[in-house]
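ok so i was messing around last nite and threw this chain in just to see what happens. nothing serious, just curious
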Amino acid sequence: MSNFESQGGVQAQTAKVPGAEWPETLISVQDLNQARQRISGACLRTPVLSVPNPSTGDALWVKAEALQRTGSFKLRGVANAIAALDSSESTKGVITYSAGNHGRALAFAARRAGIPATVVMPETASMLKVRQTKSEGATVLLLPPDEIVTHTEHLSAERGMTFIPPFDDAQVIAGQGTIGLELLEQVEGLDVVLVPVGGGGLAAGVATAIKKHRPSAKVIVVEPELAGDLAESFAVGRRVAWTREQTRRTIADGLRSPMVGDLPWEHIKFLVDDVVTVSDDSIVSAMRWLAEHAKIIVEPSGAVATAAVLQHSQKLPAGTTVTVATGGNIDLETFVSIVGT
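result:
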């Protein structure tokens, strides 16, 4: 249990509404619009599904990024980052580390651009995600989880490959932020956006888009309570790192980052209204609920935002609410073993 949870769960925070002073370190509307143009050929404009809110009966909107090409939102950030490379950066190929979705997205976008890709993955990664990444044409290296970051950095320096970070990068953040631009067009009168967080790139990008165009809307970030480093960071006002042994406990394997990235944190502390943690039991319930009501299959990480509606319905702000279902890269056998029949 994080410090945040031990202090009472959902805590009231001062609303983060951008004023005239927008920090120069944050991405801009121009960055978001440029990203949208760059990724238009590679990425889908995913649908927003209307389902009955299990608490109020009103419409709950679900942004179905699980239906994105490569099965997750990660393609947006990667496609933007690769499109921004110059010829010298792309000549020797690109490299990253990933538990799965970011790596598969990199492999897909690099293949489209004619660039070789290498993905360093933990030995504990889902075999489905490993196969999917290889099928996109990437070279996949499997290492112990504690070695993937340093080995990626080593290979990047040794071979001159361009490193595309999973989340701590302005181009990646801007690409993920295109989800927020789409939401503003797809959901009229948007009041509350629930976004899952691991490394923070998605939360940073979506928060930027929402707060720039609709500052009255609340952006609430959701993470597993078993990987609640951001909730603790948000409560104390500085980044707090959890150990990988702690974050590995959650079923949501895509959200096991021990700490949000530096650049995402700069966005989150300025723009995000609140951080909510959810139990693994709630995540499983949300997976089942999305399958039954929204008719989409999501992996555990993809159900985290919706889990907040199930677990914290009475504490969340009222109004037109959207959850982002971020990914669906899970085989049916594993899905059934998690949610039951």
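not much to say yet. Confidence is low (pLDDT under 50) at residues 1-15.
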